[in-house]
Every structure is written in structure tokens, then in C-alpha cells.
């Protein structure tokens, strides 16, 4: 990532979403997929290979697909609320 925006000069040096996007995606996608997998099991009782064939690609697509929007959202919220990551860490 560049140090500043090429257009407006916005300082990017304090941009840091850390593990936030991944944590939210783990929790949200995990809840959705686990709920749907349990519902599918109790409703249709498919063989396990069917469950794996459905949910492994779903997990990969949702997780990878949501990572960039989630990171953008958290960075936008960081700017909006003037939260900075320049707090000293020990
Ligand atoms: Zn800009």
C-alpha cells in the first residue's frame, strides 16, 4: 500500500485493520455455514461427500470474497471515527 493517496494526499501510514476483517468473516461465515449445514443435515440427510462438496467451496468463496470489502469497511470506519493505530505498544 502506498504511504498516501495519489489524488488527495490522504495519509495512509496509520491505516491498520489488523486481524479485524478476518475475525468478523470467521464469525459471520462460520455462523451462516454451520447453520445451513446443520439445517441441510436435518432436512435432507445427504451423504457426507455432498455436504463437503457444498460447504467447502461456499466457505472459500464467501471468505475470500468478503475479505477485501470487510477490510475496506474497517479502514473507512477507522477514518470516520479518527481511530489511529499509532498507540504505543509494549
Ligand atoms: Zn484520496
Helix/strand/pairing category: mainly alpha
Order of helices and strands: HH
Number of helices: 2
Q: How many angstroms does the end-to-end distance come to?
A: 25 Å
Which blocks of ≥5 consecutive residues have pLDDT under 50?
none
Brief sketch in words of this structure:
The protein is mainly α and 90 residues long. It is built from two helices and no strands.
Overview of this protein structure:
The chain has 90 residues and is mainly alpha-helical. It has two helices and no strands. The mean pLDDT is 88. The site of zinc ion has 4 residues, from loops.
Notable traits:
elongated; 64% helix; mainly alpha; 90 residues; 2 helices; binds zinc ion
What is the strand and helix layout of this fold?
Blueprint (H helix, E strand, L loop, with lengths): L19 H25 L3 H33 L10
Helix pairs in contact: 1-2
The structure holds zinc ion.
